[in-house]
Amino acid sequence: MLEFLGFGKHRHDASDTAFSTRTLAGAAPTASQRDIVRMTLHTLLKRHGIAPSWLAAELLPLSSPQEPDAWVIQIAVLHWHTGFGQYAMALQKELLDNLRRIDQSAHHAPYTVHWVYAPDCGCPYTTVPSAAFWDASPAELAGELAGERAPTAPEKPVAKAPTKGKASKATKPAADEGDDDDTGFAATQMREDY
After folding, report:
1. 31-47 and 82-102 helices cross at what angle (nearest 10)?
2. What secondary structure letter does DSSP report for 6?
3. Which residues of 22-37 are buried (b: 16+ CB within 10 A; e: fewer)?
4. In the chain, pLDDT over 90 holds for what percent of residues?
5. Which of 71, 124, 129, 191 is positioned for an S-S bond with 133, CB 3.0–4.6 A?
6. Cα–Cα distance, 92 to 73 (Å, whole number)
7. CA-wise closest residue to 41 among 85, 86, 88, 81
8. Are 42 and 30 in contact (CB under 8 A)?
């Protein structure tokens, strides 16, 4: 039953598992194959406003009896951002779609994506939460996460629009805002001197 892991086989038969990484020099990816994967990821990250230094990609060969030319794209998270956990599937799908569009050959190489996290990526989660976390509904989790967020800065005061019948001047915002074009009027207010 566990033969695919190499259990129940003699030591010399362990290389005959269903999946293994290829070690032959001829099976290693070419420089152009590696560059296509890296540049496709780089372009994808820039398009979505993600710093390209936050993720890295490596192309590794994968030997499988069903797919002899299969490849593993190992994406390493070098800088932690919660969005990678939430949008990993979308990033992965778009990366694979872009690679298929670039590869104009009749036979597209099958890719498998593997995500790894660098030990120094800055992930704040160092322990697995209790069972109550996993039983919680998405709404409860959203409420807990909202409570954990840092408080936001108070909103800047907005000048009130004058009421009908009264001609009042709007108060000028605080001088620390650093806006040289500020005339003391809200964007929807008309100046009386025009």
Report:
1. 130
2. T
3. eeeeeeebeeeeeebb
4. 34
5. 129
6. 10
7. 88
8. no
What tokens does 62 get? 């994968």
Q: Which of 63, 71, 73 is nearest to 95 (CA)?
A: 73
Query: How far is it, in rounded angstroms, from Cα 52 to Cα 82?
Result: 16
Buried b (16+ CB within 10 A) or exposed e, 56-72: bbebebbbeeeeeebbe
Instruction: Record the tokens describing residue 110, joined without a space.
Output: 């099958």
Which letter does DSSP use for residue 120 in this model?
T
Distance, CA of 13 to CA of 16 (rounded, Å): 6
Identify whether the C-beta of residue 144 lies closer than 8 Å to the C-beta of residue 136.
yes
If DSSP codes are grouped into helix, strand and coil, which group holds residue 193? coil
Among 86, 102, 82, 109, residue whose Cα is nearest residue 41: 102
pTM of the model: 0.57
Instruction: Please state the separation of Cα 127 from the chain's center in Å.
Output: 21
pLDDT higher than 90, residue 192: no
Comparison of pLDDT for 8 and 76, the residue scoring more: 76
Q: What is the pLDDT of residues 147-189, one digit of tens each?
A: 554 444 444 444 555 555 555 454 444 544 444 455 554 555 4
Distances (CA, A) of 68 to 21, 63, 72: 11, 6, 12
What's the pLDDT tens digit per position in 81-91? Answer: 999 989 999 99
Q: What is the CA radius of gyration of the chain?
A: 28
